[in-house]
Design a protein that fits this description.
This protein is of the alpha/beta class. Helix content is 39%, strand content 16%. It contains 8 helices and 7 strands.
Length: 179
């Protein structure tokens, strides 16, 4: 089978959890390439890895104007971010070079909100202190503070911020937010 596109995968998650996506690409005749290490790749590493590539399933690699305008990126048609956001991609440079940029909104909203709330609870309840003393074979009471009824400030009320706010409502927290 002739390969139609060469697809670079720099996102570790796409290798670990993206078997179905890889299978779809292979069935479409694409050749999948993994770099020697996963992203975020530095500018020189990324430029070297892009040589001959048609597409990238990208980590937070730095797609600067220098990278996107390089000879190595001349075949590049699409940068598909495996994750939320595309801050690491110079959109104006991609547009000038005819490169489409996509991302996966909503992919990790609940996971990030859960993790945010887990950290909030761990800090409020001083879990880290108790963990350290237990590792030393000791016991220390460190109940920490309640979060129920407290005020939570959220800066950035996008999908993830709203998911954190929903979790806070379960603790009867007052939420102040700024978009």
């Amino acid at each position: 089978m002739n390969t139609s596109w060469k697809v670079l995968i720099t996102a570790r998650g796409a290798q670990a959890a993206g078997e179905q996506a890889q299978e779809l690409l292979r069935n479409a005749g694409c050749e999948i390439i993994f770099p020697p290490k996963f992203g975020a790749l530095k500018e020189d590493e990324l430029t070297a890895a892009l040589s001959g590539m048609d597409a990238v399933l990208a980590s937070l690699d730095g797609y600067s104007d220098n990278v996107l305008s390089s000879a190595a990126a001349s075949r590049l048609k699409i940068i598909a971010r495996w994750g939320v956001g595309y801050d690491s991609v110079d959109i104006a440079a991609a547009t000038r070079n005819g490169i489409v940029v996509t991302y996966t909104p909503g992919l990790l909203d609940d996971a990030v909100a859960d993790y945010t709330f887990a950290l909030l609870l761990a800090l409020a309840r001083r879990v880290h202190e108790v963990h350290v003393t237990m590792q030393r074979g000791e016991w220390k009471n460190a109940w920490g503070d309640d979060i129920a009824g407290k005020t939570l400030g959220i800066i950035g009320l996008g999908r993830i911020g709203k998911a954190v706010a929903r979790r806070a409502s379960g603790f009867n927290m007052r939420v102040l937010a700024h978009g």
